[in-house]
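worker-03 picked up job from queue 'complexes'. Input manifest follows; two sequence lines, order preserved.
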Amino acid sequence: MNYGPLVFLAAFFALASSWCGFVLTPQLQIGRLQQTNTASGAAVTYPVSRPGLARQGLEVYRANGCAYCHSQQVGQSGTAVEIALTDAGTNQAATVAALLSLAKATNDEPAVWTALPALEMARSNSPATNLLSGLPKAFLRGSNPATAKAAVKALDSTSAKAELRIVPFGADLARGWGKRRTVAEDFLFDSPVMPGSQRIGPDLADVGTRLPDVQWQLLHLYAPQLVVKGSAMPPYRFLFEKRAVERGQSPEALVLPGKFAPPSGYEVVPKPAAKALAAYLVSLHPDAPLFDAPMTVASAAAATPTNSPAASEPAATNAAPATAPAK
Amino acid sequence: MSPELNQSAPLSAEPAEPKAGQVAVPVWLLVLLFLVLYGGMVYFDRNSGWFSEQVYAPYRNLQEVEAFQPVSGAPGLVQLGLQVYNKPTCVACHQANGKGLSGQFPPLIRTDWVLEPEPGRIIRAVLDGLSGPIQVEGQSYNGAMVPWRESLSDEEIAAVLTYVRQNPEWGNKAPAVKPERVKEVREKTKSHKQSYSPEELLKISPAD
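worker-03 finished. Artifact:
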């Protein structure tokens, strides 16, 4: 009864099949991802590798187990198209008539089209000046890009100008956790990738857009409850140093109010690890439109040069996230 | 020695082991299995997107994702051109607004050097550089433009020239430059080792 070869073959087959499933298939699928040009025509290379301090911050993020409570993957349930009017044109009566015929279409095909509040106004016969004020304004939301393109064409045939907007939607996006779904490209320069699985805290995929202030991040690491009421996050005070003030206060010292303030003659300054972690957090803003995650970015047409000097304050990149280089 | 351990004695008291008869697998089961397999394959084919890294739920294939790509007003060459322009190549001297720097670097706006219908001269200037006194828009410049022959490909030169010649923000509106045209000029001027001077360029026919 020599079952040796059979046992060997069975074990080999079991290991080989799981290796194919867990190693080979993902490698074939996303192993050769490269930097791409963003899909909006903004000609921005994406992603750009993180600056050195932020890369060190990834190690701090890993060492402190941030990924156990924070995910970094934003979900998306689908993509919608919106028809927005950018210019009312010279013949406003014709524009309003075209909009009303679109409103009629939404009645005919409720499955394809949803009228946005602006279009409801057209139905209730409010004056054209109200309807056409505050452009650009989105009037219709639909699920079918082909019909949307036709509708835009119809609007364009009047004197008005309309544009098609690609709008990702989903529960995470409604929470303000990002502008589009997280895709594999977002982690291209990160090793290891820590997308996390539990959401004890909020998702951090797009935290650099929401909270781009390094000082805020440092304050939050030192005393989370100080800046976020009722936060469940433990303080990371070991990333800071409380030291006696010598020859004037350090410019890096945290401004701490009330009970968090150090005794007089002392100051709280971030250690290099805290600075790196804050730099990493503000570098998280995966918001460039990509082929696999299309979206319309406001004023994407007015593309700025890709080599614009990296703003020292991330808040500056917040205004035009798609055109600013990822930090 | 006890009788139980006597291996050689036959166990005659045991009844014979039951045997399975030779029964064929029913045809209906084979057909059912085939149908289930076929259905699975069809489902896989329709919904897997063939494991493309660019297809995420709820989309099932590349075409569905492609339908949502924003329609860009500018053609591909112009987009690539913007990127090349800001590499930084041209932008370093001619500036992002194409106006150059007064007295140092000539503008790319409204000038015939850029907007000639046939791009023969401007392709040469980009390939091998341009130096010496030059009159642009009534102002004289005396600088040196570096050659880009080695660092930019045919497609990149065509793209950046198309971007410059067709930039609506600058009010430029000249025919596009095709990569084949750049390739042709590059072959023709292979032996040209130094920068062009403006006089030398003016002697060359733009269509050449």
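worker-03 released lock.
Chain A touches chain B at residues 25, 28-30, 33, 37, 39-41, 43, 76-79, 81, 145-146, 149, 164, 166, 181, 183-184, 289, 291-294, 296, 300-301, 303, 305-307 (CB under 8 Å).
The longest strand of chain A covers residues 78-87.
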